[in-house]
Amino acid sequence: MSRSKPLGRVAIIDDDPLALEFLILHLGAAGFEALVAQDGPELLDMLRGRKARIVIADWIMPKMDGLELCKAIRSLKGLDYVYFIMLTIRHKRALLLEAFKAGVDDFISKPVHPDELVARLQVGMRMIQIQEQLKKDARSVARLNKELTEANKRFRRLSVTDDLTGLPNRRYALMRLREEWALANRSGQPFACALIDVDRFKHINDRHGHAIGDAVLRQISADLGRAVRGGDAVCRFGGDEFLIIFRNHDVRAAVAGAERCRCVVANQTSWPEGLETPVTISIGVAQNEPGMSGLDDLVQSADQALYAAKHSGKNSVWVWETNGSDSLIYASQPQPVNLLAPSAVAQDANH
């Protein structure tokens, strides 16, 4: 006949041989396995080896008494919860309080009564089960919190990311513009933005289909990302319109950055197969100016410059600049890439 699995292992230590025999006998009768330690260090090794979760120790012992042993157990790092029962003939309140403060869970008075021993062990088993459940619940909560944190991060990324291009979207662009505006006001540093529109994009969609149009937008997104500095932000502002935020750029430096973007797109050769319409972009640039009342003025200025670029032949960079009370639109004098014949550009200047 096979032996039934013990209810649990109990590490015991007592310098009285008769007390040890009594404990071993009644632990076995109650269904527990007794592990006898000769001294405190041996018992600590048992616990480090995960051999027991309940300890029964006499208070008065040579070398290391029960109180010192309990303190040593509680100081062990990475140890599972251990239920500590102290055997004692001491009943003074001050001593018992001292033992509780040291980490003792329960007491059994000597001489030990078998029924009381079993009852105390059952309490210890329940406490161990509660601690295990709490640890399991804590792991579950930690896992759920981690999953929730990751989900929130994904949601935040999605909420400010354009699905088609992977660029930051209009929401992010406006948020970043507000941050740069506030930073520029505090520091006195300039910053500029550029609005970009894909030339003849409606014609591309109508002639080649939206799948080709989407591929064109993705390619332009990649080109713009390569053309700007690391601290600048390229965003899809909506439809075929993009926005670049040039941090710490005055209007001249922003024009140079915008012209670099225009050239990268105009010189691109990896367009979708079958695309016959040359792809270029028009860009309007504006800088934060003392006379502007807020971001709306900045974006509107860039939009007016973009309008001028679109209606002056496309594939160019224009700037809105305020000079005193007069508003001035001027060309950045780029070196255009003539992908269309001049007559074709003139005929197509309305969009």
Describe the structure.
The protein is an alpha/beta fold. It folds into two domains: 8-136, 3-Layer(aba) Sandwich (Rossmann fold); 170-347, 2-Layer Sandwich (Alpha-Beta Plaits). Helix content is 48%, strand content 19%. The chain is built from eleven helices and eleven strands. It has helices spanning 17-29, 40-48, 66-75, 93-102, 114-159, 170-187, 201-208, 210-227, 251-266, 295-310, 342-347, and strands spanning 8-13, 32-36, 54-58, 83-88, 106-109, 192-198, 233-238, 241-246, 281-287, 317-323, 326-331. Mean pLDDT is 87; it is low at 333-351.
Q: Would you tell me the overall average pLDDT?
A: 87
Total E-strand runs: 11
Q: Which class do the helix and strand fractions yield?
A: alpha/beta
* Outline: rod-shaped
CATH level-4 homologous superfamily of the largest domain: Reverse transcriptase/Diguanylate cyclase domain
Strand order of the largest sheet: 7-8-6-9-10-11
CATH architecture of the largest domain: 2-Layer Sandwich
Order of helices and strands: EHEHEHEHEHHEHHEEHEHEEH
Count helical runs: 11
Distance between the termini: 93 Å
Count of distinct structural domains: 2
Q: In which range does the helix fraction lie?
A: 40-55%
> According to CATH, what is the class of the largest domain?
Alpha Beta
Question: What fold name stands as the CATH topology of the largest domain?
Answer: Alpha-Beta Plaits
Radius of gyration: 39 Å
